[in-house]
Design a protein that fits this description.
The complex is a heterodimer. In chain A, the strands form 2 sheets. A 4-stranded antiparallel β-sheet of chain A has the order 2-1-8-7, covered by helices on one side. Chain A has a 4-stranded antiparallel β-sheet with strand order 3-4-5-6, with no helix packed on it. In chain A, strand 3 and strand 4 (96-102) form a beta hairpin. Chain A has helices at 2-28, 56-63; strands spanning 31-41, 71-82, 87-91, 96-102, 107-114, 117-125, 131-138, 142-150. Helices cover 23% and strands 45% of the residues of chain A. By secondary structure, chain B is mainly α. Helices cover 50% and strands 9% of the residues of chain B. In chain B, helix 1 (3-13) packs across helix 3 and helix 2 (19-31) packs across helix 3 (33-52). The chains are: A alpha+beta, B mainly alpha. Chains A and B meet through helix 1, helix 2, strand 5, strand 6 and strand 7 of A and helix 5, strand 1 and strand 3 of B. Strand 6 of chain A pairs antiparallel with strand 1 (125-128) of chain B.
Chain lengths: 152, 169
């Protein structure tokens, strides 16, 4: 009886250590982000042949935003790993960049830079699959969108 | 023998019949063995019931009588035969506490590890700096886990005439 109880207690302790250990590993893992530059237009086909269709998940969520554009295309994408406390800048075009800062692996500061000038800055929780979109008008009644999506 | 005759015998036994009826039943009993047997059975039953119902009176009060019984029981039971309270080891006593406490602690740790750090009570968006762009607006779609920040960058007068329509500024 005593032996059985002892075994139960030891197994419970090992389980706790394993759970806590796996959680700690997850917390220390660098956060992964994908930064995508999108082109919004009413044209069914992009004038730029290098533009690609969107990922289904991003496409669905972008379409749910209150924007007037009928179609969106992927211009380019970049992946970035962001360890705790680190700031990284991701260039999305010649004049645009996004700067990401990992504050505590859940809270991140996102700075949108245009023409070497800070245009917007947000600090927010970024759980897995959360998406932040910066956007603005582009020539010819089109739009540019910069999607920052947490993927890891 | 029918039910009426059985009742007649019962009445005879209880001396509830008139003299004429009683003598009639007596002559019937002399001739009918079955009736005689039934009468004997009824008499025995009545006697048994009468004894059963006899009240027993205690010579003293009920409490005092019971206390005597209890004292007698205690006297007859040898002291050595009485089971001593089991000695509970400290390990067993702690085990009763440790097993449920350990289970609760394990669940609590698992829960805390799962949910991670406490969320900001003010909401998912924690801070928004003042934008240099006065035309900015922000839209949150909590169902789709998406936030849109719409800027007036670049200003329309920044669009160069020669810029193709698929270039981001």
């Amino acid at each position: 009886m005593r032996l059985r109880s002892l075994i139960i207690i030891v197994l419970g302790a090992l389980l706790c250590v394993a759970i806590a250990g796996s959680g700690a590993d997850g917390k220390n893992k660098p956060a992964g982000f994908e930064v995508q530059l999108l082109w919004g237009t009413d044209l069914a086909k992009s004038p730029n042949p290098e533009h690609k269709p969107l990922d289904p998940d991003v496409g669905k969520r972008v379409q749910s935003l209150p924007l007037k554009f009928k179609h969106y295309f992927l211009v380019n994408r970049n992946k970035v790993e962001l360890p705790l406390g680190i700031t990284k800048k991701v260039d999305v075009s010649e004049k645009c960049a996004v700067e990401l800062k990992n504050l505590d692996n859940m809270k991140f500061q996102v700075t949108f830079i245009g023409k070497n000038k800070q245009q917007a800055q947000r600090t927010q929780d970024f759980p897995l699959q959360e998406m932040l979109v910066h956007g603005g008008n582009a020539p010819g009644s089109n739009a540019w969108l910069v999607v920052v999506k947490r993927v890891e | 023998m029918d039910h009426e005759k059985q009742l007649k015998l019962q009445a005879f036994l209880d001396e509830e019949l008139s003299e004429a009826e009683a003598s009639e039943v007596a002559s019937w009993l002399a001739k009918d063995q079955e009736a005689t047997l039934l009468l004997g059975e009824l008499r025995n039953t009545r006697q048994a019931l009468a004894r059963f119902e006899a009240g027993v009176r205690l010579p003293e009060s009920r409490e005092f009588y019971w206390s005597k019984i209890a004292r007698e029981i205690e006297r007859l039971e040898p002291a050595a035969a009485r089971p001593e309270p089991a000695r509970v080891s400290w390990l067993a006593a702690w085990r009763k506490f440790l097993i449920p406490a350990g289970a609760v602690a394990a669940l609590l740790i698992a829960f805390l590890v799962t949910i991670g750090p406490p969320a900001n009570p003010a909401g998912r968006v924690e801070a928004e700096s003042a934008y240099s762009d006065p035309g900015v607006f922000t839209y949150h779609d909590y169902d789709n886990h998406a936030t849109l920040v719409w800027l007036s960058y670049p200003a329309e007068n920044d669009f160069p005439e020669s810029e193709p329509n698929d270039k981001v500024q």
